[in-house]
Task: structure prediction
Amino acid sequence: MPELAYVNGSIMPIEDAVVPIEDRGYQFGDAVYEVIASYKGKLFCFNEHFARLDRSMKELHFQEVQVDEIRKAAVDLFSMAKIERAAVYIQVSRGVSPRNHSFPSNVPVQVVLTVRKIVEKKPSVRETGIFAITVEDFRWGRCDIKTVQLLPNVLAKQSALDAGCYDAIFVTKEGIVREGTSSNLFILKGGVLKTHPITPNILSGITRLLVLDICREKQYPAEECFFDKSELYEADEVFLTGTITEVLPVVKIDGRTVGNGKVGPVARVLQEGLLGKLKSK
Ligand code: PMP
Result:
């Protein structure tokens, strides 16, 4: 089956899908999104992603949205595409209306979905870990809302690639470590895991919560707390978490080796634990 798109009720091959130029997502970045991954033909953490989509829309005061219809569209499109290992992308914009900053009245939201095959990372990336750089977090103050305004993330990711690295880690001017460009971040030091607490400055990752659950199950001490760049550099292990990222070890940051430079045992256990959860859900 080809990779498919859904645009306001119509289904078509991705390359044929278009949105009107006055879509507010296109004009203003006035849109929210989610990405759901499937494993062996099943959509993982479907309800959790829809709960976050719903919250993002509420936080931006979108007009009342029939989330059940979007849920059904996601399920239908996914089953039609028959792609076992897929990423279902869902984007909802505030609608199509002549360009004007103020909210349009009585304009329905625009719903766009795509289903595409996930291209798995080369096994070597998980085996050797990745290199990262740090960049200043110059994003807005509501990173908890999953909007399509990803320009700082795009620029940070490209800076990492230009530096011969895989990803960038956002750090504030004051040195507080936030998250990756499309992932959350954990460090391990002296047997204790740390990750940034839930505040408006990071996205509340679904994988982050699953990893915290696994830590509880394994009785690994884990804290949701602030930590700075020096703790990041001195950590025994560092890893990123995300829907497509899963648990991805970072072995070099800004040219400095993390721990012994190899993928650490805790990251390995947590990645295995995550795969275990995928199979059981
Ligand atoms: N932070 C950012 C900025 C992201 O884009 C993502 C990916 N959605 C995450 C964290 C991880 O979230 P999740 O585990 O829900 O994919």
Notes: The helical segments are 24-28, 46-59, 67-81, 123-128, 151-162, 206-218, 229-234, 265-280. The longest helix spans residues 265-280. The chain is about 30% helix and 30% strand.
